[in-house]
Amino acid sequence: MATERLNSILSHLTPTKSGLAALDTKNPDDVVITLAVRTALAKGVKGSFKDTPLDYMIFALMQKVIERSRLDPQLVEDVCLGNVSDGKAAYKVRAAMLGAGFATSAGASSVNRFCSSGLKAVQDIANQIAAGSIEVGLAIGAESMTTGGDRLEQPFHPDIIENDNARDCMQPMGQTSENVGREFDISRAAQDRFAAESYQRAEKAQKAGWFDDEIVPIKTTIKDPKTGEEKEITVTRDEGPRYGTTFETLNKLRPAFPAYGDKSTGGNSSQVTDGAAAILLMKRSKAIELNQPIMAKFCGATVAGVAPRIMGIGPSIAIPKLMTKLGLDLQKDIDVIEVNEAFASMAVYCLNVLKINHAKMNPRGGAIALGHPLGATGARQICTGLSECRRLKKKVLLTSMCIGTGQGMAGLFINEQL
Predict the structure, then answer these.
(1) In this predicted structure, what is the pLDDT of residue 148?
(2) Which of 417, 381, 414 is nearest to 31 (CA)?
(3) What phi and psi, each to the nearest 5 degrees, are found at residue 157?
(4) What is d(CA 25, CA 56) in angstroms, rounded to the nearest whole number?
(5) Tell me: the pLDDT tens digits for 206-242?
(6) Which of helix, strand or coil describes residue 52?
């Protein structure tokens, strides 16, 4: 503690650092991650979590957070759940956190910014800690796509949809993917090649055991659809990767959204998935006081808007905005990049427009191969990205995703477990 205070004092006596050098400096008031874990990602409707309700999924994950962190749960002052499909999410996270052993004096809330909800939950908790509102907080992203959906049940008010962009907020995600492919000339072949690479990377990573340190086992029950018989299982392994997937096999698939175009398919789009992820945060000084391992430093996150009809290109706007705010160079300073593969159309676009080195982007595969549990993805990317940074002994992680209705979000983290 004394060393941290001395470093803080010295930082005020030495010339001001900027860019990566500033972010890599350790100060007592840094917001840090002390635990980042997730469930395995299960296939929606037919996978291992198909009979697992959202409240139990987050309850079981929070129990694992307490177990893995060895932190007194009474010290956690707020829990924020990122979730898209469940209108009762705020009820469920409050009950689940109490059931898991967190204090009645702590708060709980849910947040929904579509596919960035998990990252938004992390940002909200981090901002509270930075402002001094709380000392320790838990951010969760979770989704049961088996039981939920995020489609509009009815159109917007007629006065609203007189505006073209407002009307475009009603477009299905598949339509927006085809818009991106058509408007920016992202060919079916380019999309299938990208998707094949995602599957092949995920297969390699899973076979090598690279996901093992980020996944916690979850016990649940599953019902046989034919007999109705229930049995207890332990879910430990992602179910999305399809071994042996190639460009040729993907190129044979029919378009998934023929009313809107012919490029997006079930093979080059993200999978319907159930899963959850959790990120435990506090100030560096608090982590040292509590003898908690410091995994990474949260450096910041930002959001940006784009036209709703091409919502997939959101990361291409959010990432440069974050780079500018933090004084970073995307090509030179970033080691690992996690861009959510909502569709291959937007992933290929962002890869090309941002001139990203593909070897750095989604090195373990992305949502096309692993799945995209909407509210969980923003937190899941942090778990996977930090695990990859540890494996490679690299420092700087960038995460980003497109967001329905035309937005993008990006976050930056410094790995400290080299």
Answers:
(1) 83
(2) 414
(3) -55, 140
(4) 39
(5) 999 999 999 999 999 999 999 999 999 999 999 999 9
(6) coil
Q: Are strands 31-38 and 273-283 parallel, antiparallel or unpaired?
A: antiparallel
Q: Dig out the tokens for 118 from the structure.
A: 């998990």
Quick count: other Cβ atoms within 10 Å of Cβ 405? 18
- Local structure of 192: helix, strand or coil: helix
Please report the pLDDT score of residue 9 as a whole number: 53
Query: In degrees, to the nearest 5, what angle opens at C-alpha 407 toward C-alphas 402 and 408?
Result: 50
What residues in the chain have per-residue pLDDT under 70?
A: 1-16
pLDDT tens by residue, 325-348: 999 999 999 999 999 999 999 999
Give the other-Cβ count within 10 Å of 155's Cβ: 10
CB-based contacts of 398, cutoff 8 Å, min separation 6: 319, 322, 330, 334, 336, 337, 338, 385, 410, 411, 412, 413
Distances (CA, A) of 182 to 106, 188, 263: 49, 10, 9
> What does the chain come to in residues?
418
Sequence-ordered list of residues with C-beta below 8 angstroms from that of 270, at least 6 positions apart, any chain = 340, 341, 342, 343, 366, 367, 368, 371, 372
Scanning 209-307, the segments in alpha helix (DSSP H) are 247-251, 284-289
* CA distance to 238, 382, 385, per residue, from 198 (Å): 14, 18, 15
The set of catalytic residues is 115, 372, 402
3-state secondary structure labels for all residues of 30-43: CEEEEEEEECCCEE
Output b/e per residue, 173-212; b: 16+ Cβ within 10 A. bbbbbbbbbeebebebebbbbbbbbbbbbbbebbeeebbe
Residues with Cβ within 8 Å of 186's Cβ and at least 6 positions away in sequence, in order, are 180, 263, 344, 345, 348, 349
CA–CA dist 24, 19 (Å, integer)? 9
- Quote the CA–CA distance of 244 and 261 in Å, as a whole number: 27
The helix (run of H) or strand (run of E) holding residue 332 is helix 330-333
Residue 299, beta-bridge partner list: none
What integer pLDDT is reported at residue 154 of this predicted model?
85
Tally DSSP H helices, then E strands, for the chain: 15, 12
Alpha-carbon distance of 211 to 129, in angstroms, equals 29
Q: Give the pairing of strands 42-43 and 273-283.
A: antiparallel
Q: Rounded to an integer, what distance in angstroms lies between the CA atom of residue 169 and that of residue 167?
A: 5
pTM: 0.96
